[in-house]
Design brief:
The complex is a heterotrimer. Chain A has 2 domains: 1-34; 35-104, no CATH class. Helix content of chain A is 72%, strand content 0%. Chain A contains 5 helices and no strands. Chain A has helices at residues 3-33, 36-54, 65-72, 79-88, 93-99. In chain A, helix 2 packs across helix 4. Chain B is mainly alpha-helical. Chain B has a single domain, classed as Up-down Bundle (Amino acid/polyamine transporter I). In chain B, helix 1 packs antiparallel against helix 15, helix 4 (72-80) crosses helix 15 and helix 6 (119-127) crosses helix 23. Chain C is mostly helical. Chain C has one domain. In chain C, 73% of the residues lie in helices and 0% in strands. Chain C is built from 3 helices and no strands. Chain C has helices at residues 3-28, 37-58, 63-73. In chain C, 28% of the residues are buried. Classes of the chains: A mainly alpha, B mainly alpha, C mainly alpha. Chains in contact: A-B, B-C. Chains A and B meet through helix 1, helix 2, helix 4 and helix 5 of A and helix 3, helix 6, helix 11, helix 14 and helix 19 of B.
Chain lengths: 104, 615, 81
């Protein structure tokens, strides 16, 4: 019985801590939401850039094949974007709905 | 009667909390989806630093909620008040728990399990390629109708609350100014935000003294606003994103939180005030609820049975198809842990339902009968007259149009709260808050207008990609950039522009959104129906959940499909013949196409279900 | 500054003057409602035009990005003509 207030106090502190995290998260969400269309544009640009770099792999003559191969090492991280775009393919509608803003 | 605002608040919170724990956690999370904290999500397995980035669950919740809360949950329940305040509340509570929030949650989880693909692709993989085209068609129709409905609502709000128009005129330059401060001058975001928010508050206050009233007899002002807003949305869609869109959306997020926070305060400050409205006026409302033109026989006929036509009014408040796209868009690609999805998806939708009940339904219940409200609040009807409410001409809240219902009830309740707290003048505070309410509504609408433009163009091009193989010439014509973007705006503006004259009262007109809204709501719910049917199939076929638990998803999905289809048939048969020719040709045809696709959809679903049950 | 920027500055100034006129005349004359035809025209046109002016004036690229790219490449960026 003596421990009960202590347990309750502990629970209350935990709840308040979660509430503080919740409010901080909301604030960050507001900030992030304000740039999500910009980020969508940025990803589009990255994707176009990578398509230019590696067009010769898919039969589109952009830069010479050997140049593409040489550059492959340098853009290893960016190729992940190309890969995920290839996986999603034409499935861009949902991304646009959620990132261009507007309340649905 | 012991039903008071504080009781309503506690009931709403309690029901949602219980549903979250018992239905959300125990059933959806553990038994249907079998969420596992140790299973890595796409944000981790496909991490690329741009699309797939794990996010903190509260940040994701804020993102998701801000993307789904807007004008829809406000306009819908305002129209549904024809059934009383209790019945719509029941739908917002239980429709949300068993259908709406489930739909949002399963959209996120199915997308997560498919590596971040959207519900559209999942519907293609469960029901075949035709399902994808049905999905795109519904999305396009819903976007065109949302353009029409929102153009109309925004214009009529600017007419009924002219001070909101002033706020709009100065808000865009303000958002621009904020963008320039941050991006060109280089001021820190925090400082720029504080400056912008202070200016915004001053603006709302000043707008009360400086309303913007367009000249001319009705319907000229309304149509002028439609034109201005179309030009604006075209312009906003063409300017760079950092310049206007993002700063405006950023400031709108603060507006949303202020709106939500203010909505929660009344039940706490005036907990015990009598609710003057009827819990239920009648299970069957007059046809005017679902858009029948008043004065015709359909409008006065008792054809709006609460079930199944309630989804034609309360659309986004309880369930909205666009949420499945939002959830399976960036949200699923940023989910760090499968267990977070319940808070983000299920919790986010429940929060929207709570906002809808507390910001729209509860204030309407309090101020329903204006004279009774005045008596309860210790005011006289003269005070209400000074505030602009004539209790002899409009004795109850349902005598007003949908948008004025919202701004009046929200304004009155906030005025009561703040005049009691600060001792200020009731009428002045009322005018300030009804401006704020009208402004919040139009701010949400303005952001959706230009996005809907762009998305409609995109959906149109996607819809016709099968033409390319058959006939490249036709394809090029159909998907030409200008054709694709002009068609939605043109149809939307044409639908929104007329003010339908009342056959019985020649000087009164009905705003177009009252006719368009049921069509928009119906197609929105059809979009949700295809998403929920997809998710039911996903649960049944791919997760291989059989037996009793699978019924928990199948039954809501089937119920939703049945409800929406029945509602739209009632609308087509009883309401459409009474509409002016323009609406029969545009709205009627669009909904007819959607209904044909709807029948095709259930056939596809049945076929896929049979195939899955054999495996 | 290029021609585009000058036009942008002029348009912005005109828009600000027009908007201020609309509301000042409303305040002074019509008792606070922007109602007369000229004032209304001014308010609406000002609203549309003020969105364009700063765009033409201040160009497309946000300053931070311009500085970043100039620092990285060492080449001074021209304003897009």
């Amino acid at each position: 019985m003596v421990l009960l207030p202590r347990v309750l106090a502990g629970r209350l502190k935990g709840f308040l801590r979660e509430l503080a995290l919740f409010l901080k998260g909301l604030n960050q969400a507001i900030l992030e939401k304000s740039v999500e269309a910009l980020e969508a544009e940025y990803v589009e640009l990255e994707y176009v850039f990578l398509t230019i770099l590696f067009g010769s792999f898919i039969g589109v003559k952009t830069i010479p094949l050997f140049a593409s191969l040489e550059i492959l090492e340098a853009v290893r991280d960016e190729v992940l974007i190309l890969e995920s775009r290839g996986y999603r393919g034409e499935d861009v509608l949902a991304d646009l709905v959620s990132s261009l803003g507007g309340e649905w | 009667m012991f039903v008071y605002p504080i009781i309503i608040l506690l009931v709403v919170l309690a029901i949602y909390a219980i549903a979250y724990i018992l239905y959300g956690r125990k059933i959806l999370e553990q038994r249907v989806v079998r969420a596992d904290a140790s299973r890595p999500t796409p944000a981790i397995t496909k991490f690329d630093g741009v699309d797939y980035v794990p996010a903190n669950k509260y940040v994701l919740y804020g993102h998701h909620f801000a993307s789904i809360a807007g004008a829809g949950p406000i306009a819908g329940p305002a129209l549904a008040l024809n059934w009383g305040w209790g019945l719509p509340l029941v739908w917002v509570l239980f429709g949300n728990i068993f259908i709406g929030a489930v739909h949002d949650y399963l959209a996120i989880m199915s997308s997560v399990r498919h590596g971040g693909l959207s519900v559209m692709t999942i519907s293609e993989s469960t029901m075949g390629r035709k399902a994808r085209y049905i999905f795109l068609a519904y999305a396009w129709v819903a976007l065109v109708l949302i353009l029409a409905a929102f153009l109309s609502i925004c214009s009529s709000t600017f007419i009924s609350t002219p001070s909101a128009a002033t706020v709009a005129v100065f808000y865009m330059p303000l958002a621009l100014f904020f963008g320039l401060m941050v991006y060109r001058v280089g001021l820190s975001v925090k400082k720029a935000t504080i400056i912008a928010l202070i200016l915004e508050v001053i603006l709302i206050y000043a707008a009360y003294y400086l309303p913007l009233i367009l000249p001319g007899q009705d319907p000229v002002p309304y149509q002028t606003w439609i034109l201005i807003l179309s030009v604006y949305s075209f312009l906003a869609a063409s300017l760079p994103v950092w310049y206007l869109l993002q700063p405006r959306d950023y400031l709108n997020a603060y507006l949303l939180w202020a709106f939500v926070a203010l909505a929660v305060i009344p039940p706490l400050v005036i907990p015990i005030i009598g609710l003057t409205g009827p819990w239920i006026t009648s299970f069957v409302a007059k046809g005017v609820t679902i858009g029948a033109v008043s004065g015709t026989s359909a409008a006065n006929a008792d054809i709006a049975w609460f079930w199944p036509t309630v989804p034609l009014t309360i659309a986004c408040g309880a369930l909205s198809g666009f949420h499945s796209l939002v959830g399976s868009g960036t949200t699923s690609k940023q989910l760090a842990n499968e267990l977070d999805a319940l808070l983000v998806g299920y919790g986010g939708m429940l929060t929207e339902g709570a906002v809808s009940s507390l910001a729209v339904i509860l204030p309407a219940a309090i101020v329903w009968d204006f004279s009774a409200f005045a008596a309860n609040a210790g005011l006289t009807t003269d005070v209400l007259l000074k505030a602009g409410i004539n209790v002899t001409k409009t004795p109850v809240i349902t005598s007003l149009g949908a948008v004025p219902r919202f701004t009046t009830s929200y304004g009155l309740v906030q005025a009561l709260v703040w005049s009691r707290l600060t001792g200020g003048d009731f009428v002045a505070i009322y005018k300030g808050f009804s401006t704020f309410a009208a402004w919040a509504l139009t701010a949400f609408i303005l952001t959706t207008l230009d996005t809907a433009n762009r998305l409609a163009r995109f959906a149109w091009v996607e819809l016709f990609d099968w033409v390319r193989g058959r006939s490249p010439g036709v394809y090029r014509v159909i998907t030409n950039r200008w054709v694709a973007s002009l068609i939605p705006i043109a149809i939307g503006a044409i639908m929104a522009a007329p003010k339908i004259p009342d056959p019985l009262k020649p000087t009164e007109t009905i705003p177009a959104y009252q006719v368009i809204w049921p069509a928009f709501a119906g197609t929105n719910q059809l979009l949700a129906a295809i998403a929920l049917l997809t998710e039911a199939l996903w649960v049944y076929a791919l997760l291989k959940v059989r037996g009793g638990v699978s019924y928990l998803i199948m039954i809501p999905a089937a119920f939703l499909w049945l409800t929406v289809t029945a509602a739209l048939f009632i609308w087509m048969i009883y309401v459409v013949p009474s509409l002016p020719l323009l609406y029969i040709v545009t709205t009627g045809v669009l909904v007819a196409i959607s209904l044909i696709l709807d029948i095709a959809l259930i056939a596809l679903f049945a076929v896929s279900l049979r195939r899955a049950s054999k495996l | 500054m290029g021609v585009k920027e000058v036009i942008g500055v002029l348009i912005t100034l005109v828009a600000i003057i027009v908007l201020v006129y609309a509301y000042a005349s409303a305040y002074a004359m019509a008792g606070g409602q922007v109602k007369g035809d000229v004032a209304l025209c001014a308010a609406i046109c000002g609203f549309i035009v003020i969105l364009l002016g700063p765009y033409l004036w201040l160009g497309e690229v946000p300053t931070a990005i311009k500085k970043f790219v100039e620092a990285k490449t060492g080449v001074k960026l021209e304003e897009k003509k």
